[in-house]
């Protein structure tokens, strides 16, 4: 049974400005494992990666029903499967978590579906 669905969209230009002007934001959003991946990406991919992860975490908090605050940005981790598909590897949800991330030249969007056991 579906517990919740969340979606979020982020402007890449906003994230790029944050990366340049507020680098502390990066470590507030990304877990250590996510940050290790982020550091090895070229700048354009860093922007897409951070925007996608931020959108995922916002979408998760919406699906969880609380918004960011009750679910912290560090409480959710999104890594990749061997196939390259994103997967939620850490969250407060004890059931299945489905995630999808997409990018255009100007936006990143993420959707989360939480399924109860």
Automatic annotation (TrEMBL):
Keyword field: Cytoplasm, Fatty acid biosynthesis, Fatty acid metabolism, Lipid biosynthesis, Lipid metabolism, Magnesium, Metal-binding, Transferase
Amino acids binding Mg(2+): 8, 58
Name of the encoding gene: acpS
Keyword field contains Manganese: no
A Gene Ontology term for the protein's cellular component: cytoplasm
EC number(s) recorded for this UniProt protein: 2.7.8.7
Main location: cytoplasm
Catalysed conversion reaction: apo-[ACP] + CoA = holo-[ACP] + adenosine 3',5'-bisphosphate + H(+)
GO function terms (MF aspect): holo-[acyl-carrier-protein] synthase activity; magnesium ion binding
Domain spans labelled 4'-phosphopantetheinyl transferase: 4-102
Sequence similarity: Belongs to the P-Pant transferase superfamily. AcpS family.
Entry protein name: Holo-[acyl-carrier-protein] synthase
Subcellular location: Cytoplasm
Organism per entry: Enterococcus quebecensis
Alphabetical GO biological process terms: fatty acid biosynthetic process
Xref: InterPro entries: 4-PPantetheinyl_Trfase_dom, 4-PPantetheinyl_Trfase_dom_sf, ACPS, Ppantetheine-prot_Trfase_dom
């Amino acid at each position: 049974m579906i517990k919740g669905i969340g979606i979020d969209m982020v402007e890449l230009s906003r994230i790029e400005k944050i990366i340049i002007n507020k680098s502390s934001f990066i470590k507030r959003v990304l877990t250590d494992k996510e940050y290790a991946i982020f550091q090895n990406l070229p700048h354009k991919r860093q922007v897409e990666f951070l925007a996608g992860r931020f959108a995922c975490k916002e979408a998760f908090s919406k699906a969880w029903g609380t918004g960011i605050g009750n679910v912290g940005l560090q409480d959710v981790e999104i890594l990749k499967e061997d196939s390259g598909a994103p997967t939620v590897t850490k969250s407060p949800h004890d059931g299945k978590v489905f995630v999808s991330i997409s990018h255009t030249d100007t936006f990143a969007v993420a959707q989360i579906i939480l399924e109860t056991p």
